[in-house]
Amino acid sequence: MRVLSGIQPTGRPHWGNFFGAIQQYIDLQEENDGFYFIADLHALTTVRDAKQLRQNTLDAALDLLALGLDPDKATLFVQSDIPEVSELTWLLMTGTPMGLLERCHAYKEKKAKGIAADAGLFTYPVLMAADILAYDSEIVPVGEDQIQHIEVCRDLAGSFNHCFGETLVLPKAKTLDHGAKVPGTDGQKMSKSYNNTLPLFGETKPIRKQIMRITTDSRPMEDPKEPEGDHLFQLFRLFGSEAEIEEMAGMYRKGGFGYGHVKKAIADASENYFAEARDRRNDLEANMDYVEQTLRNGAERARQVAGEVLGRAQRACGLK
Ligand code: ADP
Ligand code: TRP
User: CA-based diameter of the chain, in Å?
Assistant: First the structure.
């Protein structure tokens, strides 16, 4: 199966990015033909500093490789290295109803907040659709917030096929049960835009401090509590083994413990969980030639596929 996903190089990756998206990339690379890219064209809608964007893009490659993405098993590349995607975006754009884009969350939210939106933000889902369709992708692993965009992609591919004949492959979104919506330090969805993230990489001490400051309710120590609805429990569950999760759930139901105990368990478990990736990231950072060569190889492979699909789409609509 062709599996594809993209991640924007807009800042340090956080637990939500890993458990919602990146972990799936790594798992799926074993049995599938994985295509994973760094969405620098999408990031351009928010990062308006050339040096920063370039650095973020390389950082994102380091992050993915350190977390276990294996270039011998999957294709890793940078979005803007594949100009065919931008061409396909135009073909799709000509058949995109304005109303469809007006209903998209990212645009609606900005508009509701009174932030001036540009055409890049408005048409963001069309570029995302082209990203997916350019590689005949069948499965798109993402967090819950991206599902609407995959639906838009299916709509656009469906109407292209309806108009010009069967040309584009309709993809399916894939989310994980527990990783679909990782809560942040304030209990809301963890997101760079909410300033509530816990980073995957970085010095452990300040991260521990952030964990100890996670907001909690003011439940008295002795009250039993249902674990399921508690965001600290949800965070612990990301790292614990089945037995540890059961044990923690038991403690919640019994009551009589402080939240500090859970926070410490989260800090220990997360440090342990990402230790290997941290070491690997340091090694890779000292070997940037390898990272850049990996991206060039990935782009070459991705361009081949995107060129074929674009040609097919161009012929279908009478451009060739
Ligand atoms: P952010 O919201 O922090 O800007 P991105 O939009 O860059 O994150 O998301 C990159 C990937 O990580 C997407 O597939 C997204 O669905 C996933 N993701 C982001 N935040 C979370 C979260 N809190 N829980 C689960 N998945 C998430
Ligand atoms: N919009 C996605 C995000 O913010 C990133 C992305 C761009 C993407 N193109 C994609 C994800 C194609 C999956 C498939 O997270």
Answer: 73
Closest C-alpha to ligand 1, atom 4: 192
Residues in Cβ contact with 167 at an 8 Å cutoff, skipping those fewer than 6 apart: 160, 161, 312, 313, 316
Given ligand 1 and candidates 37, 107, 191, which is best to mutate, with the most ligand atoms within 8 Å of its CB? 191
Domain assignments of the chain as residue spans, ordered by start = 2-180+288-317, 192-281
Ligand 1 centre distance from Cα of residue 178 (Å): 13
The finding on whether 96 has its CB within 6 A of some atom of ligand 2 is no
Give one DSSP letter per residue of 135-158, joined into a string: TT--EEE--GGGHHHHHHHHHHHH
Residue 173 CB neighbours (<10 A): 20
131 Cβ inside 6 Å of ligand 2: yes
State the closest ligand 2 atom to the C-alpha of 7, by its place in the atom list counted from 1.
5
Tens digits of residue pLDDT in 286-316: 999 999 999 999 999 999 999 999 999 999 9
Superfamily of domain 192-281, CATH level 4: Tyrosyl-Transfer RNA Synthetase (1.10.240.10)
Q: What digits encode the pLDDT tens for the residues 68-93?
A: 999 999 999 999 999 999 999 999 99
Top-level class of domain 2-180+288-317: alpha beta
Distance 127 CA to ligand 2 centre (A): 9
Residues with Cβ within 8 Å of 281's Cβ and at least 6 positions away in sequence, in order, are: 62, 63, 66, 201
Active site residues: 110, 189, 192
- At 265, list the tokens: 């368990």
